[in-house]
Every structure is written in structure tokens, then in C-alpha cells.
Amino acid sequence: MTYKVAALYQFVSLPDYRQLKEPLKALCEALGLRGTLLLAPEGINGTIAGAAEAIDAFVAHLRNDSVFEGRFDNLELKFSTAEAMPFQRLKIRLKKEIVTIGDPSVDPTRRVGSYVDPSDWNTLLQDPEVILIDTRNQFEVEMGTFDGAVDPRIERFSEFKDFVRRELDPKAQRKVAMFCTGGIRCEKASAFMLSEGFEEVFHLKGGILKYLETVPEEESRWNGACFVFDERIALGHGLVEVPNLPVSEEERPSDE
Asked: Which is nearest to 227 in space by CA: 155, 141, 156, 154?
């Protein structure tokens, strides 16, 4: 059996996020889905897997079910496949943030950088004034990244703001392009950088996964593999699983 995998997120006000845990869990269990979903006052984030029709039904329910009041109508979604179930169980977690930057003033629903579609990403990177930053942790960067990207050498995303304040200057770096796995970290990273006075901040819409899904390998500026937070470990061009990577459980980050 081939499983369909959905990586999703949306920043949206969820003051009742605690009350949404059980309906979301019940929906996933009824459809036989496994994976991890995070709920927080700022939105939803996660990756789930199951039969293709079950994933499609889940997305439809999330968007249209009256329980969720139509609030998940702007989901960022990436789909891939797996030959084996990539998750051992279902986990629905309540968090303070769906991706942790540790600064409550950073609000992607108010202001973020300019989205760049994967089809336009290579053109942006040709601009000599652009500094390209990988917002992911060092483990992920070492597995694969874009040509010429700056590695912030962080162990967790909450350290990104310290890297910016220590290493970057809005007067010197006027054009900043950034990327992450699925796009969610860049939502917060770009919002933070704008608040720090950086004038032009761009981020890859849909992240590395959308780029690998849509940009032909012969045109790609990506090198290596893209780490994903499930049992597949990493994906390559076309979102095909990269087999036999020598990665131990101790090395792997648990989530974003």
C-alpha cells in the first residue's frame, strides 16, 4: 500500500484551541490517520499520513466542518507519498506556538515577508544584492541546502533571532531571502526580520518541499536531501524518499 502524506499549517487565531483537540483527534482516528498535529492560539501545524482518500477527506473536513467554523480555509499544504506508514501513532499536541521563536510580539497574521513562488526562486537568487539564509537547524542544513546559503548554525529555531541580531545588519543586508522545510518557520522569521528594520525580506512559498515538488531537477539549485520529521527521514527531487541514510535516533530533531 502507498500512503499519502500531508504536511500542513495555517496561522489563524484559535482562542479555543484546547477545545479543538478532541474533535481533531476523533476525525483522524475515524479516518485511520497517523502523524503529529500541533494546535496553539496562533494556528495549526503538522504532518499526517494515511490512505489517499482518507487524507483528502481530512482536508475537506478541516476546511468545511462546522466544528472548525471555516477557520482552516487557507491551509498551506504539501503532499507526498510513502511506501510504508511513516508514523507509529497519532499525536495531537497543545502548544504555546505552532513553531517556537520565543517572541510573543512576532505575529505572522499581521505582517510577513514577500512570498516567492518556487518557479521564481532561482531568478531571485541571481540578484547579487540578495543574501540567502537557511532558517533551519544545523543538522538539517548539513543534510542539504541551496547553493550559497548562509548557515546560521543554530540547534533550534528559537535561536534564529539571536543569530540575526548578532550577525546581520539591516543597513548592510537590504535584501534577504530565506527558506525552510515547508514554509512555516519563514513566516515567523520574516515577520521578525521586518520588525528588526530589514527592508526587503523574501521567503520561499511552500518551502523546500514545494520547490522539490515543482522545480525540475535539471533546473534545481538544491543540493542534497531535505530532512522531514517522520520515518522517511529525508526527501529528494520529486519528493521521493532518499533511502538508507545513516541517521541515528539521537541525531534526529524531534520536530520544528
From this structure: 141
* Phi and psi torsions of 225, nearest 5°: -120, 160
Contact 78, 182 (CB under 8 A): yes
Predicted TM-score (pTM) of the model is: 0.88
Q: Is 226 a catalytic residue?
A: no
**For residue 199, how far is the Cα from the chain centroid?**
23
Which tens digit of pLDDT belongs to each residue from 175-194? 999 999 999 999 999 999 99
What is the rounded CA–CA span in Å between residue 187 and residue 115? 9
- Candidates 28, 180, 186, 226; catalytic one: 180
Q: Among all chains, which residue has been given the C-alpha cell 503532499? A: 79
**pLDDT digit string, tens, across residues 7-53:** 999 999 999 999 999 999 999 999 999 999 999 999 999 999 999 99
Helices (H), the chain: 17-31, 52-64, 118-125, 138-143, 160-167, 184-195, 207-214
Q: Beta partners for 116?
A: 204
CA distance 80 to 164: 32
Provide CB contacts within 8 A for 240, sequence distance 6+: none
